[in-house]
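Notebook, bench 3.
Goal today: get a predicted structure for UBA domain-containing protein from Cuscuta campestris so we can plan the truncation constructs. The sequence was checked against the plasmid map this morning, with no discrepancies at the termini. Length recorded as 317 residues. Pasting the sequence as submitted so the record is complete.
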Amino acid sequence: MVVPEVDKNLLTELEAMGFQTARATRALHYSGNASLEAALNWVVEHDSDADIDQMPLVPVASHNVPPKSSLTPEEIKMKQHELSPAPPFGIDLIKTVHNMLFVSVLGTNGLDPERIRIGKELLEAKRIEEENERKRLIALRKAEKDEEKRAREKIRQKLEEDKAERRRKLGLPAVSAEDHAPKPSAPVVEEKKSSLPVRPATKTEQMRECLRILKQNHKGDEAKVKTAFNTLLTFAKNVATNPNEEKFRKIRLSNPAIQERVGKLKGGVEFLELLGFEKIEGGEFLFLQRDKVDMAVLHSAGAELNSAINNPFFGVL
């Protein structure tokens, strides 16, 4: 019996995310070396297996055979469906409207005013939904640009401080003559206190704040932050793709691996609670009830996590 061959690049990525070599090798082998996401999903599904941290062994005869998926063709199709990206929010509504209008035309030859009215109302609802989604994406892009702008300003201030320190070491004034030049002062405007109540942060803003806190608390450990973000993304995507599967809506929070990657990191459990997860059985599990699955919230969570993973300036301030 020997250790099976797995994709070296995927194995390196899993190890960089904090997984032990044995667990990473087992996940890649039994997920068919399909992808990093497939391996992560396997780990989540088999996290409670007794032998998950034992190095897998295969017969010597199969050692040199390229790794293959142990799934049947039907299971491969189902797995591809699970890993395919969730449709954008609003697509289901568009299909529903289209089908209703099509049935209306076939059933009445276009002569039923009531069905025509209902169809128009549904089309208008679809248009409003698309407009709201467009505005949400614009606001998200603006928030990312503002964050990059603040990060650049912080870097500029740091450069100015370094410049002043170099001048001090050379015996020069910390501020150059140009900086002493008087600058026109802005007119003082008396601040008026608003009597309007402060609007609470949206759920999307709260999720972004959780991710920012998590990254700031672990600035010196990028691998830990990356592992946490990818784990949260896997949880959100699994529920969005399979909302009727209870195993994806129940997380054993007391599990040491989950604790290490998300549970004991400030902002991790709070992020999952914003998705609708609730602590049950004395805090041992996090559970998301089926009737509380909100696709819009899950899609927003995916967008925020992708932004946190791919935006190099995220959480700098």
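The first strand starts at residue 250 and ends at 252. Residues 203-310 form a domain with the Methane Monooxygenase Hydroxylase; Chain G, domain 1 fold (CATH 1.20.58.2190).
Flagging this for group meeting.
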